[in-house]
Specification:
The complex is a heterodimer of chains A (112) and B (110). Chain A is an all-beta fold and 112 residues long. In chain A, strand 10 and strand 11 form a beta hairpin. Chain B starts with a strand and ends with a strand. Classes of the chains: A mainly beta (112), B mainly beta (110). At the A-B interface, strand 6, strand 10 and strand 11 of A face strand 5 and strand 10 of B.
Amino acid sequence: DVKVTQSSRYLVKRTGEKVFLECVQDMDHENMFWYRQDPGLGLRLIYFSYDVKMKEKGDIPEGYSVSREKKERFSLILESASTNQTSMYLCASFRGSGYGYTFGSGTRLTVV
Amino acid sequence: SQELEQSPQSLIVQEGKNLTINCTSSKTLYGLYWYKQKYGEGLIFLMMLQKGGEEKSHEKITAKLDEKKQQSSLHITASQPSHAGIYLCGADGNTGKLIFGQGTTLQVKP
């Protein structure tokens, strides 16, 4: 089975801190995604990547950046965390057309 | 851009009852995915539908895709407490970017 691992389940950070959320997949998938999930707003796409060193903005990229130096790892970076970035963050990996997207267990980030 | 609307937003059913969740797209559906999420956890892939009229089943869950209506339905037969959670439909509009509906929260009363 494809595994997508997010480094932390729960994280508490202070306003203004630089935050790194890590995601690793073990099946050599080219496509990886970062979403945030908020009550009443559903899942919204932040950034995605089709290949190493490639990144594309999703629907809500403001305040975030990403890094994909290796195929298996896709990192989400909050340059200066703010309280409105308190959310559940979900990483996903995708093999290609005809296959499902595999999600990690999520990181619940609280910014205080 | 494509939007997905799920109905109902929430559902409470008695154990043993059948139920249906709908997902309607604003644009043509090229691939429709159903996921289940337990509170505070990641998404579990249930099924993917790609062709109009396609129907798939897994245990007591059946999903159908009506391409003409740009709609998919998820049907649970004889619901159990283990079916409780949030059900999400997703579509990638042939772009490789998966977007989601708002989700349907299901509670099953024993």
